[in-house]
Please model this.
Amino acid sequence: MKNLIAFSLLLISSTLFSQGKYESYFNQELNSKEDYIDAEPKVLECAEFILGSKPIDNKEYLMAKLYIVKWMEGAPYTFNLYSNAGKADKKHGHLYGVYLAGMVTFYLENKDDEPSEKEIEVGAIRHLCVHVKKHDLQRKGYLKKLMAAYESNNLEEFLFP
Model:
């Protein structure tokens, strides 16, 4: 019986005090350009987790988003944030994180081609639209218009008239 109680306490404490994968990423130091370049696979992993997950309110989802933001702040690349994602985010508060995940995914998958700011923005919004469609999120206002442009293959014209 004492062994069962000791084992149960060990199991509970390890669950309560263990770091999740994305939290451990977030806690890693990023000091040099090389650190940021070496972190790219982890950033993509976080982005894939966000893009592929239904919006959830848990610590791992939050830590994955925070790691992407942390990485973007010091990465040796410039990311310009447009207002398109902010407009789409009014109803669904998680979409800005999806937008950032889409942005880093598009950029890192195409960095050898040196995509323009416009290409990165369109690529990020395209990832956001795929996420909205995959998880059948409610579409109202700007998001409804954005999705209509995406589904009619007029996304770039909609974003940059």
